[in-house]
Amino acid sequence: MATSNKPISLAGPLDADVQRTVELNKFLVEAGLYESADESARREEVLGELDKIVKDWVKQLTSQRGYTDQMVEEANAVLFTFGSYRLGVHGPGADIDTLCVGPSYVNREEDFFIVLHDILAQNEEVTQLQPVPDAHVPVMKFKFHGISIDLLYASVSLLVVPSDLDISQEAVLYDIDEATVRSLTGCRVADQILRLVPNIESFRTTLRCLKHWARRRGVYSNVTGFLGGVNWALLVARVCQLYPNAVPSMLVSRFFRVFTQWRWPTPVMLCAIEEEELGFPVWDPRKNPRDRTHHMPIITPAYPCMNSSYNVSTSTLRVMIEQFQFGNKICQEIEMNKASWSALFEPFNFFEAYKNYLQVDIIAEDDEDLRLWKGWVESRLRQLTLKIERDTYGKLQCHPYPYEYADPSRQCAHCAFFMGLSRKEGVKIQEGQQFDIRGTVDEFRHEINMYMFWKPGMELAVSHVRRKEIPAYVFPEGYKRPRPQRHLNHQHHSDKNDPGNGSPDSQLKRKHDSTGIDDTEPCRSVKRASISPVHPKTSSPRSGNVSDEPISNNQQKVTSNASGGSQDSPGSGNQDQTKCSSSSHASEKSLDSVASGSKCVKIEAVCSGDVTSKHVDCISPVKDSTAPTVAVSTTLKRVAEKVVLELVGSESIGGNNAELLQIAETDMGNVLVENLHFGGNGVPQSGLPEELES
User: Fold this and answer.
1) Which range of residues forms the domain containing residue 103?
2) Number of domain units in the chain
3) Domain named Poly(A) polymerase central: which ranges (predicted)?
């Protein structure tokens, strides 16, 4: 799969570009994106201590297994860094991604996750130790001297690991399993990125800028279906290749210009994809049908080349394209001296952008249980987005917001995530049409129940909230929601540019007081009644607890709990309370119409369940809004839909076609076009930009 690194433009900066770069650097410093010299030195000291620990660990194991004194003396482990720290773009308080490479006789399953784990657990400076052996990339997470560490392990086919081991060489991949390959990939990719960019300092400044922008705009989260650190690094590196002589202010502008017009799923690649004789799978839509379903392929440059952004869905891609368009517009204004850099980093007003939301409340007995439970639920939220896309045939779109919020009035450990809901633009939907996703949310609930380390008190509630009912704790101190204007059609208009809206940097999360939990006191919440999970080991869901009966806009149904009590549904402007208890109550409530211009889509969410069922039902399109809403969810239907999705894909790049990426360059009056020729199986034959004279 060939590619070329021929640049789009070799132009260097003008005086105005240099000045804008100075202003950009000043903004990044004032935004606190650079750590102090003292903190940098402290990180080096911590890495030095950790390096000594893993070396002593390997020597200890070598001695215990009866190797010679010389082998014990030569026994070694090497510590590498990757991620933002290796790329040189980490900020204050950022974690350090580390990889320990050890000899062939020191394994991951027992020696790393048991022996080394116990050594770390006995160290007083190690806190929040969390082994995750079953992860796609097995990792041990902890804090060491207050600095967050993600530690991976790779056992290579060497009896003695040399101190100057070069893991960028393919030889390091001989005779190892795929989990070890994945553990090595982070370091190999980081090193390759730094080799392939024309100017490392310009790359670092641009990447630091765009990572900050992505966080402010709510599109920085691999686990939620957006892009993570390595994805942003690869996109920025590609723009650096296309404009090798540009300074950071130019690169930021060109970044948005390029990716606003990029024709996804055309892959972004820094170099050609090479297939070695080692036989590890690489990203190749010609051979792998699943690769054809990827919506936003961003290919890693080190063997084995993989798509680093397979988590992206149609909904999250849509959100990112909209944000790229926003960035492109602001950068144009900056270049015309109509805006400053601060305008680019205005937080996205997520809670003013939609009329309907899903709220996912996560509850646990204490902070430690919440940390574990939240990690599991958050890792599955992307599946809820995919399932809603699948079951509504893409007509109902989700915007998962990758930030968590905590209700400070609750006396239990709590956090909440939100998803914006909207119909797909351009799709003809009958007036009053409803989306029933009760079965979808129920399926999601069952997957969440499969958590292996569930404990009593770990609960989940999924419910619908209107924009006017968003709980107050997600907004900054003193923020007052704008009162919606009343119109004859009762539609609500929002000001999406309201700077007072909740934002990641202003009110991402407020800590709750987890001490002194009193079972007799209610755990305060502004949520309406919803269903909290009960682990399948303690109770089983009761069948037939989903009502297929349609509910009108002015009807609200309250279900009683096991003791005969009922729970009211709070309004938007008050602080009605509910206890933190597994005996949750159910409510059924219809949603407001979702309007966009002259087209209106009615979304209905029904929440139904009982004490024993951890059941949450909410939002398959129906042709007649007056007919009963029936949730059709059979195994056969799900299997059929899955087969169709895998064979076709919503944006498959298969077939005999050609994609044109037109990058409209205003500089020097040139029009630049990137022709991407596809073979019979949809694989790009040539993805190189061609400079055309007007």
Assistant:
1) 37-191
2) 3
3) 202-346
